[in-house]
């Protein structure tokens, strides 16, 4: 009876994650993985460093675009290209991976002066990464991968927290009216929501391709 139940559960999980129509292939339930809030293995650290490298390369371009297009007031392009890497770090490697990926890029950004907002990347990225990792810990159950709606909720709340340092900077340092700052950060929050269209399939494909070894 126990073996039959195990087989049924396995078939159920396979059906949830098996390729189907295009939306299901991209946005269906993720395959299962072993989640730890504070992993400490060398593998986790090295994998997180590779994700951090991907983020650095992406944002070196995005931060310059934001400076040219928006005067360095808000990281709109940075948000779109930053989300896939930070979500992957937080949901696969917990707080360890999230904090590594969140804080390596700001070091590079400050050293290369790629954005006038670079000092704010430390608190903003950390708020985002910690929130994603905690929500992954809350939603993730043994034997099941995360679903799109769960990652959506985590990303939305993390995105709201991420914009707080920028609002403080814009209103206190730049002396922008609060309504102007809220308008700018509303656009950035929309960028967070839209970027999930890239981030979720990215994370799902990393698991399905076996690129992420987290069992």
UniProtKB/TrEMBL annotation:
Keywords: Membrane, Transmembrane, Transmembrane helix. The chain crosses the membrane at residues 44-62, 74-100, 120-139, 151-169, 181-203. It comes from the Archaea. Residues 1-24 are annotated as: Disordered. This is ECF transporter S component. It comes from Halarchaeum nitratireducens.
């Amino acid at each position: 009876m126990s073996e039959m139940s195990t087989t049924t559960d396995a078939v159920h999980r396979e059906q949830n994650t098996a390729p189907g129509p295009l939306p299901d292939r991209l946005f269906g339930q993720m395959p299962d993985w072993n989640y730890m809030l504070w992993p400490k293995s060398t593998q986790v650290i090295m994998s997180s460093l590779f994700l951090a490298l991907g983020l650095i390369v992406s944002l070196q371009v995005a931060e310059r675009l934001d400076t040219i297009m928006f005067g360095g007031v808000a990281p709109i392009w940075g948000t779109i290209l930053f989300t896939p890497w930070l979500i992957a770090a937080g949901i696969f490697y917990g707080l360890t991976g999230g904090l590594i990926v969140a804080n390596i890029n700001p070091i590079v950004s400050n050293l290369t002066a790629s954005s006038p907002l670079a000092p704010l990347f430390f608190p903003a990225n950390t708020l985002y990464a910690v929130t994603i990792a905690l929500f992954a810990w809350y939603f993730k159950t043994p034997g099941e991968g995360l679903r799109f709606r769960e990652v959506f909720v985590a990303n939305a709340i993390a995105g709201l927290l991420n914009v707080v340092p920028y609002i403080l900077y814009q209103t206190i340092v730049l002396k922008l009216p609060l309504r102007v700052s809220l308008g700018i950060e509303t656009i950035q929050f929309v960028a967070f929501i839209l970027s999930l269209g890239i981030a979720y399939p990215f994370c799902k494909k990393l698991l399905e391709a076996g690129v992420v070894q987290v069992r």
